[in-house]
Model the fold of this input.
Amino acid sequence: MKIKLHTFRLPLKHPFTISRESVTTQPTLIVELEHEGVSGFGEATTNSYYGHTLASMSASLAAARPDLERIDGLNDPAEFWAQMQPALASDPFALCALDLAAHDLWGKLRGEPVWRLWGLNLDTLPGSNFTIGIDTPEVMEAKLREEPNWPCYKIKLGADHDLEIVERLRTVTKAPFRVDANCGWNLEEAIAKSHALAKLNVEFIEQPLPPEQSADIQALASASPLPLMADENCQVEADVDPCAEYGFHGINIKLVKCGGMTPARRMIDRARSLGLKVMIGCMTESTVGISAIAQLLPLLDYVDMDGAALLASDIAEGVKVVDGRAVYPSENGNGVRLL
Ligand code: MG
Done:
């Protein structure tokens, strides 16, 4: 098989602001995997927090190229992942982009969408939330009003005025909210806020405490009327069991952090066997990455796949998310075609 790398700067509809910087574009790496004239596409966006850049991912894949080019054909993406994982063990983002491309190629070579090759159907699919980033209450309200038709919203919290934000947004819509504290609370604060949020039609709280305070999750889970989802606590396969032991009710999987669709499927199976709820989240991917998440959608309780909806312009066709609902294309594999 042959590999080709493409890099893009995805233009965002709105500047994305965090404490260190404000960005207007999201750099992304697209992996094209080719066999017998057919190409599959995968993606990993860069992430300064986790230290993955276009240069670092490209270097990882360049080092893995000799191994990859020795592999002839693609019978099973999970087997391909196991063959490539040793060379990319230190770079789950690059491994993710390659694994997504392998799935897209596999389905295209077989003439079926990936979800069907996995024996799934699209009869009942969860709707995606739309994420409202942390900002002043005025700006957060304006962002929600701009996107009025999503079935639910994920609200980023972790500020002094958390409850004021949710109360204000609650006057705008009756749709359920999820809140994501991104490790921003302590135990006492989280217990108090969980009771207030439960009265505001909030479905669950994502990552209320930092991973270093995981010992407090059990106490919070006992006191909180709302379920607790792990995100920063659950990055790779080995994190699933500890999340259940800490007392989380579910996990939010990110494909770039765990290394792609192959480990994500195993994490979903393991979470189910432990009685955990399962969500997949996105990292401002284009339609290439979102179309990969869509193949796993029938297996999920919740999904956050609004990435491509945040872009001013996209680089691919594939699964589109329209007001939170996934619309599947006729293309096989993950359904991706670069524009
Ligand atoms: Mg999160």
In short: The longest strand covers residues 2-17. Residues 180, 182, 206-207, 231, 252 surround magnesium ion (CB under 6 Å).
